[in-house]
Design a protein that fits this description.
Elements lengths: L43 H19 L3 E4 L2 H8 L14 E5 L5 E5 L2 H8 L8 E4 L13 H16 L6 E3 L4 H9 L4 E3 L1 H8 L4 H24 L6 H15 L3 E9 L20 E10 L2 E2 L2 E7 L4 H20 L6 H5 L21 E4 L6 E5 L16 E9 L6 E10 L4 E3 L10 E2 L3
Parallel strand pairs: 1-5, 3-4, 5-6, 10-16
Antiparallel strand pairs: 1-2, 2-3, 7-8, 8-9, 8-10, 11-12, 11-13, 13-14, 14-15
Length: 435
């Protein structure tokens, strides 16, 4: 590997089509984990060029001079680097995209040295060791933030953008103060990065599809193992094991909710024993090469009551009505109008019911654009665009007062409609281990 080769300063703009060589009449590829010489699969250098090109376009359109990112998803989008899930809440890494320059990454200790050896898509000098404070555990008085603020200011001067507003996403308060002390004007940069990330390339779509395929397998395991005597946490453990065996790089969370816990939705799991006749729903959130899933399914154990079956049917109808509307040019306020108001399914207001009849973009983060909810979409609608990938999820309490159904599908927006990539059967209520 030639460690001195770097992509040029002037990046080719991303293609106007997210998949210039893809025929949408065919299935979206789910080719496996390995790169091979006999098929075109995920092209990671093309993926890097696309993401950096999108970020540069969004930066140029924003009127900002640079983006300073601490959000690990934005860092990965800009630099195609990752050092492990333990970093996610530590604010220990940061990257700078200034003007037309290549990104510069400050990384945790020896990771910067590792990148110089193995990440030849950026110049070696763009990988630097950095340390701010690990969420304040090293106090600002130690001077680390001051040193890095001065370093960033110097780089912005070199790029000719130091007098322009600088967009930031997540940041320690002490670092914000030090950046202002060196004369920088800081503004919200998260919106710029979300603009960049909302349209996925074919490589991103293939990775999202692969991640969903792994959850298909997890639901087959749940369907076979969901029986009396098994606990919610037993199923969570088995699914974690399976997903890591299949190649997941992070199992973020698995909601396992059964019986009387289904209504209201608690968004967690316990050691509750599964019993005959339980309605149970699950949400599996994991990532493959950084690309995430949010994928609910509901089952009944052995049998279902009329109230449980009716809840599932209504939940599916609400979901199908939304899916039928998804195509380029439709606005999100149109979609939410087919979902019930909060008061119609037992909640006092839309804030209390937020996330139950819901849509959200999905990519390197669990929640990207568009957000689809009666809470926000009626007054602040977003346009649905070709290349968006998002999840649609609905929830319906049963009339027995404690059961409930929850279903979710992930969709890719094509030129003419959408394609569902979450394939475990869910049109009718699945009965696991039927009596």
């Amino acid at each position: 590997m030639n460690k001195n080769v770097a992509i040029p300063t002037e990046i080719e703009p991303p293609p106007t089509s997210l998949a210039p060589h893809w025929n949408w009449n065919r299935a979206i590829p789910q080719p496996g984990h390995m790169g091979v010489d006999f098929e075109g699969r995920v092209d990671f250098r093309r993926l890097h060029q696309y993401r950096l090109g999108r970020a540069r376009q969004a930066l140029a359109a924003s009127g900002l001079g640079a983006l300073l990112t601490f959000d690990v998803n934005n860092i990965r989008y800009l630099t195609s680097t990752k050092i492990g899930e333990w970093e996610r809440d530590k604010l220990c890494r940061f990257a700078l995209l200034a003007g037309d320059r290549l990104p510069i990454l400050w990384d945790f200790g020896s990771a910067a040295v590792h990148h110089r050896l193995y990440c030849d898509w950026l110049p070696q000098e763009n990988f630097r060791a950095g340390m701010l404070g690990m969420r304040g555990t090293v106090p600002p008085s130690a001077g680390l933030m001051k040193r890095h603020a001065e370093e960033i200011k110097d780089l912005l001067v070199q790029a000719g953008v130091a007098d322009m507003p600088i967009g930031v996403d997540l940041i320690e308060p002490g670092m914000w103060i030090e950046l202002e002390r060196v004369g920088l004007k800081l503004v919200d940069g998260q919106q710029v990065m979300l603009d960049a990330r909302e349209i996925k390339s074919i490589d991103e779509i293939v990775l999202l599809n692969q991640a969903a395929a792994m959850v298909d397998a997890a639901y087959q395991l749940i369907y076979e193992d969901l029986k009396p005597g098994v606990r919610e946490n037993d199923l969570v453990a088995r699914v974690n094991k399976l997903l890591y065996e299949l190649g997941s790089d992070d199992v973020e969370a698995i909601n396992a909710i059964s019986g009387e816990r289904c209504n209201p939705h608690p968004h967690n799991f316990t050691d509750r024993l599964i019993r005959p006749g339980d309605q149970a729903f699950f949400d599996i959130l994991h990532s493959f090469v950084g690309y995430r899933t949010c994928y609910y399914r509901t089952f009944n154990v052995g049998m279902a009551t009329p109230a449980q079956s009716d809840a599932y049917k209504r939940c599916r109808e609400w979901l199908n009505a939304a899916i039928d509307l998804i195509k380029p040019g439709v606005s999100t306020d149109t979609v939410v109008k087919v979902w019930p108001k909060a008061e119609e399914f037992g909640f006092p207001d839309e804030l209390s019911a937020f996330g139950l009849q819901f849509g959200h973009g999905i990519g390197l983060a669990l929640h990207e654009r568009p957000i689809i909810s009666r809470l926000v979409s009626l007054e602040s609608p977003m346009e649905i665009k070709t290349g968006m990938v998002f999840a649609l999820e609905t929830y319906c309490p049963a009339t027995d007062g404690y059961s409930a159904a929850r279903i979710e599908e992930e969709v890719v927006v094509t030129d003419t409609g959408c394609r569902v990539i979450t394939l475990f059967p869910a049109e009718e209520l699945p009965i696991a281990n039927r009596y």
